[in-house]
Design goal:
Layout lengths: L1 H31 L7 H16 L4 H23 L3 H11 L2 H16 L3 H7 L13 H48 L6 H4 L1 H10 L1 H15 L2 H11 L8 H12 L3 E7 L2 E8 L7 H29 L1
Antiparallel strand pairs: 1-2
Helix pairs in contact: 1-4, 1-7, 1-13, 2-7, 3-4, 3-7, 4-7, 5-6, 5-7, 5-13, 7-9, 7-10, 7-12, 7-13, 10-11, 10-12, 10-13, 11-12
Length: 312
């Protein structure tokens, strides 16, 4: 009984420390957003890019080992951070989140379009997506920005918070490593079809639950749950990503717009299915997407903090 009681106290303290740290890290992201220099994710990406120069092989096995090494390294750093208590978890949370910057860039793009500054909007777009902005008109810019805000509401906030609630600081940083690797090498291109296969599949698995939680929150918090649900049911399965399609369809239905179509990347173009049944998004819809994203992010933080106390 005494040992069980002591163990229970340790579990409660660990869960409480994680919850406090995640709440503090989320608040820090709201206040400070992503640092312009020295962001941990940017430093991680630089290290990954440098190591890829001498480890790259057109091989699934090598790519899987590469992915496992970097995810393991990030999780190990998270383990060290977790031993520092709430302060360490707060630092890991702040490093893993990117939702505030996401919303601010979306608003800046909308403001540029409202003022007729198409070139200014194009210059901002690469901060959100990997598409060639020179080929996009106003509608194309808005569509790209809304799709990115929808997907990254899950990737940059909901998913890391879910993994933080489940596994603490190692979950936060391990997930961020998975998502960063997917963004860097998880392409369906001739170079990365094999080497990036493990990174892409790992990211798919890591986002299965968070993406659906994001879609559910977007549907409920938009005030149009049935419209969002219809779009997800009718269109999400046609998207090449098992997770992005769910989130983008939910946002399209919730906002009463349509997303998808031909998408031009640096590695080539892809014909994406149309999601939703409304008109193409404009600047006002981009602002609405930012507002919805912020509501979803806040709600997911509340769910994650409660979950951290319950799960650990």
């Amino acid at each position: 009984m005494v040992v069980a009681g002591a163990d229970t106290i340790v579990v409660v303290q660990a869960g409480t420390a994680t919850a406090i740290g995640m709440a503090a890290g989320t608040a820090a992201d709201l206040v400070f957003a992503d640092p312009q220099r020295g962001h941990p994710v940017a430093l991680f990406g630089s290290a990954v890019a440098a190591s890829q120069q001498w480890t790259y092989r057109d091989s699934r096995a090598v790519g899987a080992a590469f992915t496992a090494f970097w995810v393991g390294a990030a999780a190990a750093v998270g383990g060290f951070a977790g031993r520092l208590g709430p302060a360490g978890v707060a630092g890991a949370t702040f490093s893993a989140l990117g939702g505030t910057t996401l919303g601010r860039i979306g608003e800046e793009i909308a403001s540029a379009l409202d003022s007729g500054d198409l070139e200014g909007a194009r210059a901002l777009l690469p901060s959100l997506v990997g598409r060639d902005p020179s080929l996009l008109d106003e509608a194309g810019i808005c569509r790209a920005a809304v799709e990115s805000i929808a997907e990254n509401t899950s990737d940059a906030t909901v998913a890391p918070l879910c993994w933080g609630a489940l596994a603490g600081a190692p979950g936060l940083l391990g997930y961020r490593a998975v998502n960063t690797l997917d963004a860097m090498i998880g392409y369906r291109s001739s170079k990365y079809a094999n080497f990036g296969w493990a990174a892409a599949r790992t990211d798919d698995v890591a986002n299965l639950v968070p993406a659906r939680l994001t879609a559910l929150l977007a549907a409920v918090l938009s005030g149009h749950p049935l419209r969002a649900a219809r779009a997800v049911r009718a269109d999400a399965h046609r998207h090449p990503s098992p997770n992005a399609g769910v989130v983008e369809a939910a946002f399209a239905g919730a906002l009463g717009i349509s997303l998808g179509g031909t998408t031009v990347y640096s590695h080539g173009s892809e014909d994406r299915p149309v999601l939703g049944s409304g008109p193409a998004p404009l600047a006002a819809d981009l602002r609405a997407a930012v507002r919805l994203s912020r509501r979803v992010q806040l709600a997911s933080a509340v769910v994650a903090v409660i979950g951290a106390v319950s799960a650990r």
